[in-house]
Amino acid sequence: MVASGTATVEAALLGTPMVVVYRGSEINWRIIRPLIHLDTFGMVNLIAGQRIVPELMQHEVTGERIAREVADILSDPERLGHLQLELVRVRDVLATNTGVNASQRAAREVLDIIGVE
Fold this sequence. Notes:
Layout: E1 2-3, H1 6-13, E2 20-22, H2 26-32, H3 43-48, E3 55-57, H4 63-74, H5 77-94, H6 102-114
Parallel strand pairs: 1-2, 2-3
C-alpha cells in the first residue's frame, strides 16, 4: 500500500508491487476532481501509460478494499509476476537509452552547472 505521489515511483524502481491509495479532504476532492480528465492518478501508472497497479481514490479507500486488493495481488502468482514485469518496464522507461538512471543524469547536470568534471 503506497500513498499516491513520488513514493509510487520509488516503489516501482525497487520492483515492489503496490496498491496506490489517495484520500484527501472532501471539499478539495469535489472541487478538483471534475477538473482532472485522467483515468489514472498514480505516477507509476502515468509513467507506464496504463493502469498496472490498482488505485483506490477517495471513497474507495477503505480497510476492506485495501485488504482485498493486496490479498488479490499476493494470492495470484501470475498477477504478481505480471505486475513485477510491468514495474521493470517502468524502471526502464525512466532510464535513458545509454542506461544512465535519472539520479545519475541529475548529478551530472549539477556538476556541469557548477563546472566540476
